[in-house]
Write a structure and sequence with these properties.
192 residues; mainly alpha; 10 helices; 77% helix
């Protein structure tokens, strides 16, 4: 899967045949088909792997309730994962940005979301579960912040902030460690 991700990202998903991946992985094309039914299946597994890693931290006790401590842990783990496996995430983002595969990726993402859900929870859809947990978390903040607080706006701003900082984390070669940690702390402070 690592070889496939690298070649999908650098050469293009449609330009990378299974035989090319197998050759660079040092296995036969036939053996490749023992593990994956198709190139689309291989792509689905790559997406599943990324989502499963992130999913482990959104609700560690699997109770469907996102506490403030779990929220903070999720942010810290998310940005730790991005730094720890930066090459994987650089390639993953490059793959996600390919215009010719966007439709396939959206379909695959929904399938992988459902697949991750199977290992994550016994009820509902994974994406719906996570979105619901985040929405509930931000609605609960309204009780503390008052009537003028808009939980939908705050949740969207949180998502935009995290996505933007994730992209910077992945694409900026050198980020000062002190600044990086201060930024993570500030995100937590803003949205906790």
């Amino acid at each position: 899967m690592d070889v496939a991700l690298e070649h999908f990202a650098k050469e293009g998903y449609y330009n990378t045949p299974i035989s090319h991946i197998a050759r660079h992985a040092g296995i036969s094309k036939g053996l490749m088909y023992n593990y994956f039914e198709s190139k689309e299946d291989l792509l689905t597994e790559i997406i599943n792997r990324s989502m499963e890693e992130v999913a482990r931290y959104i609700d560690p006790d699997k109770d469907g309730y996102l506490s403030e401590d779990e929220f903070e842990l999720f942010i810290r783990k998310l940005f730790h994962i991005l730094r720890e496996k930066i090459t994987f995430w650089q390639l993953f983002y490059q793959l996600l940005m390919q215009n010719e595969v966007r439709t396939q990726l959206m379909k695959t993402t929904q399938e992988s979301v459902d697949s991750v859900h199977e290992t994550y929870s016994n009820t509902g859809n994974f994406l719906t579960t996570v979105t619901g947990m985040l929405a509930d978390y931000f609605v609960r903040k309204k009780d503390r912040k008052g009537e003028d607080f808009d939980p939908v706006l705050d949740m969207n701003m949180f998502i935009y902030t995290v996505e933007g900082f994730a992209m910077i984390t992945v694409y900026i070669d050198e980020i000062d460690e002190i600044y990086y940690n201060k930024t993570i702390n500030r995100i937590i402070e803003l949205y906790k």
